[in-house]
Design brief:
CATH class of the largest domain: Alpha Beta
Order of helices and strands: HHHEHEEHEEHEHEHHHH
Shape: globular
Helix content: 40-55%
Strand order of the largest sheet: 3-2-4-1-5-6-7
Strand content: 5-15%
Number of helices: 11
Number of strands: 7
Radius of gyration: 22 Å
Length: 320
Amino acid sequence: MTRPAPLPPAARAIVRGDARALARAISAVENGDSSADPILRAIYPRTGKVPVVGLAGPLGVGKSSLVSALVGYLRGQGRSVGVVAVDPSSPFSGGSVLGDRIRLERAPGDERVFFRSMASRGAVGGVAAATREAARLLDAAGFDVVLVETVGSGQVDLAIRQIASTRVVVLVPHLGDEVQTLKAGLFEIADVFCVNKSDLPGAEIAQRDLAELVALGAGHDGWRPPIVATSTVTPSGIDRLWAAVEAHQRFLDSSGVRRTAERLRLKEEIVGRVRDELAAELADRLDRDPELRELLDRVVARTLDPRSAAERLLRSLRGP
């Protein structure tokens, strides 16, 4: 039997739980630094063992407060928690607009909670391109639970399905036309519905409307999303919300859906990486390669249409 290759020093430090090494690795991933590549390759076999729970939903529904309450509840159970919160990007620096604000209530010096705010950098889907790797690094670092909070971009919050095994869609009473919001795609990704701010009037109506929608839906592979009411003011419902998450995690294991879903997520990741690399390479070649620059010139001059130009580029990539 072949022995596994020794871990690079940085990866070894992360596996040992070194918070500084973990933070540096996430920064490298976020910045596209190639120094992160050997770390990610080395830690990958040690990942996939902990639940990654995503919280999605429109802006203003209280996802950050809900994450903070969940962290407090999980720490009360003795579990360690890693959190990745994706924030809007500054149009000038590209950095996280909300990254400097205090978003997570935790005991000073609690090394079993790790929080990282990341800039979305315009990534479609409400999650940064590096969020998946950040979650894997937290997994390899030994945290019991990984929470991912999306940027709250409504209809494009859907890419969380490519990262999280359980997705919690958070709504509030009087959000507006909840039916239209869910038709935009959030209904399809929800494994658990959370009606937050349930201390406000109209919470029971929101739960009833959601229950009617869930009853009409087919569910995911036999799973019907439960609806949980929470309030971070009272507070209430946090224990029931986590119980619903755990119930979904048990369903994934007992039904065999976990393996199928993971295979699909990894397939999408591989295809996405190849697509991004090819797109970057083609963009560079269109600037530098004289033959391809001429092709672009013809499209600009309207003597060749973009579709035909793309087909020629594909043929050149495929070879004879």
